Known about the structure:
Layout: E1 7-11, H1 19-27, E2 37-42, H2 44-54, E3 63-65, E4 82-85, H3 101-119, E5 125-128, H4 133-138, H5 146-154, E6 160-164, E7 169-172, H6 182-185, H7 188-204, E8 212-215, H8 230-244, E9 249-253, H9 255-258, H10 261-264, E10 269-272, H11 275-286, E11 291-295, E12 301-304, H12 321-334
Parallel strand pairs: 1-2, 1-5, 2-4, 3-4, 5-12, 7-10, 8-9, 8-10
Antiparallel strand pairs: 6-7, 6-11, 11-12
Helix pairs in contact: 3-5, 7-8
Amino acid sequence: xxxxxxxxxxxxxxxxxxxxxxxxxxxxxxxxxxxxxxxxxxxxxxxxxxxxxxxxxxxxxxxxxxxxxxxxxxxxxxxxxxxxxxxxxxxxxxxxxxxxxxxxxxxxxxxxxxxxxxxxxxxxxxxxxxxxxxxxxxxxxxxxxxxxxxxxxxxxxxxxxxxxxxxxxxxxxxxxxxxxxxxxxxxxxxxxxxxxxxxxxxxxxxxxxxxxxxxxxxxxxxxxxxxxxxxxxxxxxxxxxxxxxxxxxxxxxxxxxxxxxxxxxxxxxxxxxxxxxxxxxxxxxxxxxxxxxxxxxxxxxxxxxxxxxxxxxxxxxxxxxxxxxxxxxxxxxxx
Length: 335
């Protein structure tokens, strides 16, 4: 009996960003078809417009079907790519590289439907194209980003943003918050949950031989209370609890030296206290090969580690490396 590659749902992200171009790059590379069967959540008119603009051919193997056909598997072939063609009247008139409510609304619809289909096992996982949070807001979407939306859609009680690359793993204890709010929401239980999720991810990737390094929140790890008490009151107790559960964990690590080469070699992964604390070093070291994974979901979800890149949208300049890495990661997790 023939074994088909995993069917992975891929959302285009914000239509005015680079997501449609990235999808076209994938669909025009037939070498992927032995590794994954892409199911694109998008719109044919939009993709045709982008293809013409950046002068790439329309993928000849692409099967275009209505969005409600995923459950019925009304495809010509189970190993060729599929486009679920959602109605999108603004596809002909939207402006690339601009924040638009219609784009936020469409991006959210694709995410919702891909998550629903992943929960129903119609796809083995989902890879999400980059979205614009302001466009979501203009469309009335009540979530700050993918992580919050997918947690609500799947009913996941605890989630974490996790960034994978061949040589560096980083998770975040807090995500899309103003800096002033980070100390208010950082709790021992929240941090311990993130450490637990990170440890599970390290095991899945075979990277659990070394301890997890937990970063401090304050300069100099608080300097014994001179620069803050979060290290003593929240971070160290969470580290102690994690070790008591059998999760090798060290810290609080001084953030400004935690990512130097010698120290990276001593840790399986890092847990950062806030968004930029983890993502600045990660993107400095692994931007083109990094993958964003949402931990704690009952489904597989990955994405590239970059945004919509409005400045180069629809110009044929998008680098698909991180997008391709996200697809590869999703297929590996799905097997």
